[in-house]
Design goal:
Number of strands: 5
Largest sheet: 3 strands, antiparallel
Radius of gyration: 21 Å
Number of helices: 2
Strand content: 25-35%
Structural class: alpha+beta
Shape: elongated
């Protein structure tokens, strides 16, 4: 998977390919910097989101709270919780 955003790239690949092929090719043509997640608990920030490696096969992405606030505002979603009336009263079984 390759995600390209202006001049930012998020790449999912085998470590051997990244180290032996991709990074050398990019370094030969451009000035680059890179961060890598390879083990449980590793994390990095990409496009203002926190990316964490929960385990070898499970990544997690956490958006910055201000982005959610803006989304709620745009969609006119109330941040407050609404209480429900007695839920058993509306249940038909």
């Amino acid at each position: 998977m390759l995600l390209l955003h202006v001049d930012d790239v998020l790449c999912l690949s085998k470590r051997s390919y990244l180290e032996s092929t991709l990074l050398p090719a990019l370094n030969a043509r451009c000035k680059i910097s890179h961060e890598m997640m390879s083990g449980q608990g590793d994390e990095l920030t990409f496009l203002k989101c926190r990316h964490m490696l929960v385990n070898e096969f499970e990544p997690a992405i956490q958006s910055h709270p201000k982005h959610l606030e803006k989304l709620f505002e745009l969609l006119k979603i109330s941040r407050g919780f609404e209480t429900k009336e007695d839920s058993s009263a509306s249940y038909v079984g």
